[in-house]
Each structure stands twice: as structure tokens, then as C-alpha cells.
Amino acid sequence: MTIAKKLTDFFTISERLECEPRLTRMSNGECQTVASHSWNMIMMAIALKPYLKNPVNMETVMKLCALHDLPEAIAHDIPLHEQTVEIKEQKRIKEQSAINTINELLQDADIAARFDEYELRQSPESKLVKLLDILDTCVQHLCTKDLSYIGQYNNNFYWRAVFSESFAEQFDYEPILRKVFNEIRERVAARLKQELNIDYTQFVTKD
Fold it and tell me: Is the pLDDT score of 110 beyond 80?
């Protein structure tokens, strides 16, 4: 297969991220796509760069943001509340197969290394990108027109996560991220009360 054919095949795979829905809904009421999720992470990284405590290579951060969910173009996204131990293992196998397919088409050692880097979560760049991955979901909880759908899953699974201390503490790696998360969570709590008459403290846990 020629390089042109391989690249063309890759482009048709990466396009699927624009069609792959996530559980979270956007400000227009539509489901967020994996591609828009990745784009939001890139925007957050650019905006946060001047305030980061841990030095990072921004080119690597951009690549990780763009590539971290690319296997889902083939393996598809699975909402967190559906990920049992068995499903997580199936997901891991499918995503590794997708990565192998992508690497075969691109034959780029740097891109292959980025997949491994994100999974290992050892570099400052991969640690930051994982937190941006989580933070974007929180942003969507703030932006969505309808907060009620979030509580429909597994007895408020997502609200119990967002308002737990362990969830908040992960952002302490970057103080600016903790401050932003606290602001988001405060606004979401106010919306829950104003729009649904729900007191967020019922979801608060000390873990």
C-alpha cells in the first residue's frame, strides 16, 4: 500500500471522531462528540499555559490532546458508568487493536510513542492532559442546557463523583486547575439548586 493510500485511510478514520458521540451534552442540547472534546482540551491547554506550575512541552500537550481518544474512532466511546471490569478489559483490547491499525497506517514513531505516553501517565504533559480530559467533562456539565439527564445514570453516579473530595483532589497537581474546577463546581451547584431544586450537599462524600 502506498503512503498516499495509507494517509487517506487514516484521514477517513480520524474523521469518525467528529461523528462519535459522548454522553455529555453541549450548550445547544446536542451530544458532544469525541472530536469536539479533544478540541476543547486543546483550547484549555492554550489558555492555561501561563498559569501552570509544572513546565510542559506544549507541542507534546497538543499532540496528546488530539490523539488521546483517537482509538475511539474505531473502538467507540463507552460511558464511564457502563465500564464494568469486564467491559474495561474489552475496551482495552479494542483500543489497543485500534492503535495498532493507526500506527500501521502512519508508521510514525513519535505518534506511536504518544499513545504509550498517555497511557503510562508519567510525563508532566500526560498528567496535564489527563486532567484536561476530566475537566472538559465538568465544563460540559456547566454548559449543558439540561442538568437533569446527568442524574439519570446509576443513582447520580456522575454527581456523586464530581462532588467527592477524591475527585477534586486530583486537580491539586496543578493549582490553577483546582481553582478552575472549584469555580465550575460552585456554578454547577448553584444551577442544581436554581433549576432543579437539588441540594448538592447530598452528593458530597469524604471518601
Answer: yes
**116 burial via Cβ count (<10 Å: 0-12, 13-18, 19+):** exposed
CATH number assigned to the domain comprising residue 54? 1.10.3210.10
Query: Residue 33: which region, alpha, beta or left (left: phi > 0; alpha: psi -120 to 50)?
Result: beta
Closest to 141 in 3D by CA, of 126, 125, 160, 154? 160
Domain with 192 in it: 3-203
Using CA atoms, how far apart are residues 62 and 71, in angstroms rounded to an integer? 17
This prediction's pTM: 0.95
Amino acid at 172: D
- pLDDT computed for residue 200 by the predictor: 96
Q: Which residues of 47-57 are buried (b: 16+ CB within 10 A; e: fewer)?
A: ebeeebeeebe
- Number of structural domains (the chain) is 1
Three-state helix/strand/coil letters over 121-151 = CCCHHHHHHHHHHHHHHHHHHHHCCCCHHHH
**Cα–Cα distance for residue pair 162/192, rounded to 1 Å:** 13
pLDDT one-digit tens code per residue, 136-163: 999 999 999 999 999 999 999 999 999 9
